[in-house]
Amino acid sequence: MRVRRRSFGDFVKAFLAFAVLLVLVVGVPLALAVTAGWPLPDGMPGLDWLQREITVSTFLHILTVVVWFAWAQFTACVLVEVKAALSGVGVPGRVPGSGPSQLLARQLVAALLLVGATAASLTPGLSQLGQSLEGNQQPSVAAAQQTPGLFAQQQEQAASTANALAEQAGQAAARADSGSAAHGDTKYYRIQPPEGRHHDSLWEIADRHLGDGRRYKEIFELNKDRVQPDGSKLSEASLIRPGWIMEMPGDARGGELVELPDEAPSVSEQVQQQISDYAQTGDQAQGSGGSGAGSGGGAQGAGDAQVSLPEQRPAPGPANPVTPAAPAPSTGQEHAATPAEAGRSFGLPEALLAAPLLAAGLLGALGRRRRQALWQSALGSVGGRRGMEPPTPTGDAQDAQDALLVGADPEGVRLLDRSLRGLAAALAAESRPLPVVYAAWMSSNGDLHLQLAQPAGKPPTPWQLGQDQTFWMLARADAEGYEDADTAAPYPGLVSLGTMDDSRLLLNLEAVPGLVSLSGTEADRAAVFASVAAELATNGWSDRMTITLVGFGDDLTPLAPNRIRHLDGFEDLFETMSAETRQRRGALGAAGHDSVLTGRTGPAQHTRWAPHLVLLAAQPSDEDALRLAELAADASRLGIGYLVGTEGTDLPGAAWEMEITGEGRLLAPLLGLELEAQLLPAAQQRAVVELFTDADPGRGPGGPANTPPFLVDVSEQGRPAVYARLVGSYEIIGLDAPDGDRSAQLHEALALLLLHREGVHPRVLASALWPRGATEDVRDALLERLRAWLGTDPDGTPRLGTDAGGRLTLAKSVVSDLDVLRSLYYEATQGRGVDSRQVRGRLLTDALVLVRGPLLADRPEGRYRWLTHEIIDAQLPLLVADTGLALSEFHLERNRAEKAIEALNAALRTAPADERLWHELLRATHATDDTGRLHALAADLIGRSGARGLPPRTEALLDELLPTWRDGVAAAG
Predict the structure, then answer these.
(1) In whole angstroms, what is the distance from residue 259 CA to residue 243 CA?
(2) pLDDT, averaged across the chain
(3) What does pTM read for this prediction?
């Protein structure tokens, strides 16, 4: 044992500590006994003392009792600390309600014991005495939630790792030369069982015995790959087991440590022998560990802990083509614009083009927002007196929308979502828990790789083991066989960070064992934060989620008002998250779950355990960062993740550290990552937000209506040269049929242009026709064929032109029946029909005659997939319903109920789900005074409603028009 040389100052501190203890422990009770007497009464007090007047004497007696209690508490603290120091307990028990008193007692006892022979090994150093009692007493937390675990083993900073290993090797050689004398400087720790406490962890061991939890890496390097008493090895910092032996750094202190087996009589002979055997493995383990830590590439074994690029399977041949899950950011998709095209305004925001999952999420959310606004507008009026068209984006917003259309990979999102839910369902069927997933890689050949925190056995079919036991892999062909699974999203915290060798990395933020820090310039950090927030808010592989933004992102709320919330500063964040952390811990305990992962596969999977991800853009102070790190120590078990911005490279308490460079590279040396970062710069962020804000126009039913983007001359003089029928089966009048092999492609291209009279970007057109990508020459050849097929007007003007922004536009002589339908309805409700009832009736009747069925009713299988991004499928039924309602109102004004019924039935053939049409049909049928006919209509409505039952407003209307309708339902039942 090493004995610390004591200085004169130590003796002075010890003497003062002894004097203070003597005064507080002995002097205080003597003084109280002399001046105030014994605190306990001589006999049993009567009830009359409760009615006595409170005098100065009574107050002094109460104060004396309080002082006696304080002395007794302090004396108990002294006894506990002395017992702990002399017996080698290391971390003494806590006296209830005595935080400051026990801290003072600990300081005094430690100072006194500095003059003892065993003080250096039995008590904490004076440098640790200032730590709070709560810090020394906080329970151990599961290692996987407090240490960087999988991501921090192999590629730590090269220079510091090499120096540390060299120093360890030198120490090992010195011990080998000096024999048993050298072993006297070596301390060991035995991992404690989790009896009445959380599982022990390297972080807590380092915190107790080295004074800093972040020094767990030193313990890990000393013990990595050494054979433990149970025959296993320490291969991951997050995986330690009770009974294992840990060699400790030389400056470790504390009573739980064993200096040498033969000098620790309190340790059993079996443990002594285990420590002796373990000590013999040190040199070999350090040598192998050094070589392992220094290696940076190559395939990794099951025990290696790092985010590593998955091994790629050979790409399928031409006979089995596979769509890349994500284009590489450096090149975009195959039909990316060249610099020359960019000069002709062909360029689009590359940040959105290079983010296929983010673009798909934004595009899907934008479509839902526009449909919601459309339906809200429809339900706000009768007869359709409002505009049917959402605002047409212009400028940067239009470029952003085009970039979303080109860059989005909705198929990749669909496969990712189905694959993850399918995995969760398969594991639940086998009664297996969800493994902790740190990251997911979407490879260039379409495969999905999940990187696990630790081996979890053989994955369920069709998943396979990847390059090692910590990788589960699903081939794209197998993913396409998955159906929609009725299970909760297992890993909703996955978010894209960027690409590496054409593989896209999604980091599972809610599984991070602590804080994730992001350093770099403010603008670069903001682009990463915006990208992460936008994808989390709109992704398609999560159900419910809360995203808390602190210090940025006020304008991102329109992306997902139900998910995003803002807090003003750190104190608000700390207060909010402290309460939620306590609530989640209690809820997990009450439900009997170890973590949110087990909760997501249980009966309450759809209603609980949604993740809460916190994005803190502004760097907190060191004190606040440590408070947040302590709060985040158990966060991964609770489904809470933290991403914190920092100006420097060192955030106190950070488990994982990343840096964004000015060149758009995302670096994480300790994680072994160098990515082409996924960003959402400020300009693109504003443009995307503008798309969402425009989708929610602040106008009521009586507000200004949007004019259709293209109005047709509906008079006899306005006959078009080319007329396409889109509502119903697809027909074209005025053009010769194109070549058979090219016909379907040209028809699809023309339909896209007809549905976007404002113009279509060439890259959007190519992306719609070839979702898997096409080269520029293929796109240009299509445009030439399309121009040749459409031809020119009599004045020589090409019918397919290009506007100033480089977008493709059709001449006014090329018209569709949808254009005519919109124009007729507009003229009837906002044009000539407003002042002339006769004109209004004729226009509405002509409009309803055009309706022959749904849009492009006979479109070929596999084509027109771009329609999923459009809202025309919602616009057309509403437009038809509005036309039918307006024509019904026109006829009912003249008591022509049969004509009104005829118009409503015609509209219902295209819009059968519109509740307004059924209501008007009930009113029109009631106007015929035919009760039997009304009963038949009510029975038809009830049959259509099925198990859901009639909507409340429909029931109320039937109660008004046909009070006996419920009798018929009862009789039928």
Answers:
(1) 17
(2) 77
(3) 0.64
